[in-house]
Amino acid sequence: QVQLVESGGGLVQAGGSLRLSCAASRSIFRDNTAGWYRQAPGKQRELVATFTSGGGTNYADSVKGRFTISRDNPKNTVYLEMNSLKPEDTAVYYCYLRAWGLPYWGQGTQVTVSS
């Protein structure tokens, strides 16, 4: 079992930046698929950025060049640096991990971008 706790969401003006953090209760990110999804009101949850189990990264086309995923393995933490934020980035952002063949989700953190 593992718990994921996100932080760092908030309200920001368009063009601004935020950094989200996802802390795991145990050392788990190094060898597993992990990253970030988001869900806007009335829309399905979608991939934002993830690390693959092989260490590569995937980004949604809509965030490429603006968002960067990173991780600090000793701190059991994954980050999402978000720059040049747009109103359409407004959503609840969820930390995601796939381990032991199962999906794990954080509780979500709200990001609101005002125009």
Give the helix proportion (percent range).
Answer: under 10%
The helix-strand sequence is EEEEEEEEEEE
Rounded radius of gyration (Å): 13 Å
Give the overall form. globular
- Total E-strand runs: 11
Major sheet characteristics: 7 strands, mixed
* Continuous helix count: 0
Termini separation comes to 40 Å
Please state roughly what percent of the residues sit in beta strands, choosing from under 5%, 5-15%, 15-25%, 25-35%, 35-45% or over 45%. Answer: over 45%
Oligomer: single chain
How confident overall, as mean pLDDT?
Answer: 95
Low-confidence stretches: none
User: Given the helix and strand composition, which structural class is it?
Assistant: mainly beta
Sequence-ordered SSE layout with sheet pairings:
Layout: E1 4-7, E2 10-13, E3 18-24, E4 33-39, E5 46-51, E6 57-59, E7 67-72, E8 77-82, E9 91-99, E10 102-105, E11 109-114
Parallel strand pairs: 2-11
Antiparallel strand pairs: 1-3, 3-8, 4-5, 4-9, 5-6, 7-8, 9-10, 9-11
Structure summarized in a few sentences:
The chain is built from no helices and eleven strands. With 115 residues, the protein is mostly beta strands. β5 and β6 (57-59) form a beta hairpin.
How would you describe this structure to a colleague?
The protein has 115 residues and is an all-beta fold. The chain has no helices and eleven strands. The strands form two sheets. Strands 2, 4, 5, 6, 9, 10 and 11 form a seven-stranded mixed β-sheet that branches. Strand 5 and strand 6 form a beta hairpin. It is globular, with a radius of gyration of 13 Å. The model has no long low-confidence stretch (mean pLDDT 95).
